[in-house]
Amino acid sequence: MMARSHVVLGLAAWVWAAPHLGLPPLETVSLALATCGALLPDIDHPQSWVGRRLRLISRPLAAMIGHRGLSHSLLAVVGCCVLLRSEGVSRALIAPVIVGYLSHLGADLLTPSGLRLTWPLSRRYAIPLCKTGSPAESVVVAGLVIWVGVAMLRARGIFVL
Ligand SMILES: [Zn+2]
Description:
Radius of gyration: 16 Å
Distance between the termini: 29 Å
Number of strands: 0
Number of helices: 7
Helix content: 55-70%
Bound molecules: zinc ion
Low-confidence stretches: none
Shape: globular
Order of helices and strands: HHHHHHH
Strand content: under 5%
Structural class: mainly alpha
């Protein structure tokens, strides 16, 4: 998916997940961290938004492992958690990064290319609902955001549909 889609879905995922984790959903720092987490997996693609800004990392990573490899795996999620915890980063700062990161993996799962969740194993997982950059991507993103919004309103006892 495109960077803008990852940002929207990362923010929606965080706003939905934060109360379940006992954390405030609308703090600026948390929203920024969720956005970073939502963009970070594409560091393995030199033409991605984050890849263009971190070329010193993205080019060798893309050359060695390829796009949607390690950085798009569950191993990367665990690695991020372990790395951040080992550095003494608080749960309140780690959670939005991880939620954003997981939203990215979930979004890429919806494209025909799918992703190698169990990297280094070669199996690809995909639920091909839309191609990256297609009009269908916008429809899927809008549908997911509406679904999160309705779920949040229902959780607060507000009747919707
Ligand atoms: Zn990606």
